[in-house]
Design brief:
β3 and β4 form a beta hairpin. The strands form three sheets. A four-stranded antiparallel sheet has the order 2-5-7-8, with no helix packed on it. 67% of the residues lie in helices and 14% in strands. It has 418 residues and is α+β, with helices and mostly antiparallel strands. The two termini are 35 Å apart. It is elongated and about 140 Å long.
Length: 418
């Protein structure tokens, strides 16, 4: 019955709406998700920052000018007054020759920051894929619960018809009829709750992939869809694939690079250049503009700064130690997550097998008890009890399969994603 209802809904959805596999849903979520787009922009920002730092290797051309007007009359010498106007225009071409390798070290740091940004995008993708999987299987589970609640109403309603007929014939007491009527109302209430949960879960699924709420969506993959479980992977493989662990290692390298940058600031700085100026001379007595070309070389070297370099280097060394401890902590965390996820995956699969076996027994028990009641060999309480057992068994199958799908998605995430 449940399979027939599911097939009919899928066929109807194929005509009036879109059908979704879990893989298609992941793709739509990744395409729509704002966190993914923000992570991509962070990568772009890091890439542009790297390009900006690389310009430090090339010559710089600057232009400028100034103008001044002397209000009072100024006599330069007897009978000769200076002009009131002074103006110059300058163009300076300079080349950094050596700055303690600061530009190169800053470039290396920017390369690391770009790599960290890309790893951040990978980490965001892994988290979003996991959330999408959980969301998809939540809807699939609620959908199955909705189908089960529908079928349970049909089962109880069928029994109600039988009991009503036997009561009308005077074969049973009204107590049996009232118990079945009560069970029918309970089944209808459960159907109402299942319908609400299913609709709310479906709304969440649509919102996560940016689909209008009024659009019809039908899930193709059942909560009982089999999945291929990856083999147990060693810790080293997980660490190499985990974006968050790779970010931690890159952060350590970046901290070490920052220490090199700090040291470079206290090394000699040497630059050369050429300056071309046009304008009035500094002592302007004739008002004639002139061109002047100047070649220059500039050398600066810190000599004494009260131990400033040493303190800043110590500060960054402490940051390096902190990053090393963070890596060690991350290793222990991944090790525990991997072990726990593998245990959870195997134990939830055992629950699936037990739940399926229990359901087969509950189905057979309900069938036999209903038949025996119709033959007058069992009281109504036995039938109602077997109905409750059937409902619980079916619900357990759905719950076990949902737990298994979530455990599988979690295990894949801990291994570093698909």
């Amino acid at each position: 019955m449940l399979l027939i209802i599911g097939v009919l809904l899928v066929l109807a959805g194929a005509v009036t709406g879109q059908t979704l596999t879990v893989e298609q849903y992941r793709a739509k979520v990744l395409e729509y998700n704002q966190d993914i787009k923000q992570a991509k922009e962070a990568v772009n920002a890091a890439m542009f920052a790297l390009k900006g730092i690389k310009t430090g290797f090339f010559p710089k051309l600057q232009v400028g000018g100034n103008y001044s007007y002397q209000i009072e009359d100024v006599e330069f010498m007897q009978g000769v007054n200076m002009k009131h106007d002074n103006y110059t225009a300058e163009a300076t071409l300079s080349q950094n020759v050596y700055a303690g390798s600061a530009v190169r070290k800053q470039k290396d740091a920017a390369v690391l920051q770009e790599a960290i940004a890309r790893l951040g995008e990978d980490l965001t993708t892994d988290n979003i894929v996991y959330a999408a999987d959980v969301n998809y299987w939540t809807v699939a589970a609620n959908e199955s619960q909705f189908y089960i609640a529908q079928e349970f109403v049909l089962i109880v309603n069928e029994l109600d018809g039988i009991v009503q007929k036997r009561f009308d014939e005077g074969a049973i007491s009204k107590t049996d009829l009232l118990m079945v009527k009560t069970r029918l109302k309970e089944a209808e209430l459960q159907l109402s709750t299942a319908t609400m949960n299913y609709r709310m879960a479906m709304q969440s699924l649509k919102i996560m992939m940016g689909t209008p709420l009024e659009e019809n969506v039908v899930l193709v993959d059942s909560i009982q869809k089999p999945v291929i479980v990856p083999a147990l992977q060693p810790l080293d493989v997980a660490l190499q694939r985990r974006a968050d662990y790779q970010i931690a290692t890159q952060n350590l390298t970046l901290a070490q690079q920052q220490t090199k940058i700090i040291r470079s600031k206290y090394l000699p700085q040497f630059a050369v250049g050429l300056k071309e100026s046009w304008g009035t001379p500094l002592i302007n007595v004739d008002g004639k503009e002139k061109f002047a070309t100047t070649a220059f070389a500039k050398l600066s070297m810190p000599v004494f700064n009260w131990g400033e370099k040493r303190q800043y280097v110590r500060q960054n060394k402490a940051m390096e130690t902190s990053k090393e401890l963070e890596i060690s902590k991350m290793q222990d965390q991944v090790k525990q997550e991997l072990a726990n996820a593998w245990v959870k995956l195997n134990e939830t699969w055992k629950r699936v097998e037990i739940a399926n076996s229990t359901l087969e027994i509950a189905k057979e028990n309900l069938k036999l008890n209903t038949f025996s009641y119709n033959e007058g060999k069992l009281p109504i309480l036995d039938v109602l009890s077997s109905q409750a057992t059937w409902l619980q068994a079916y619900t357990s199958v759905v719950a076990a399969n949902y737990q298994y799908k979530v455990a599988y998605a979690e295990y894949v995430k801990i291994l570093g994603g698909y």
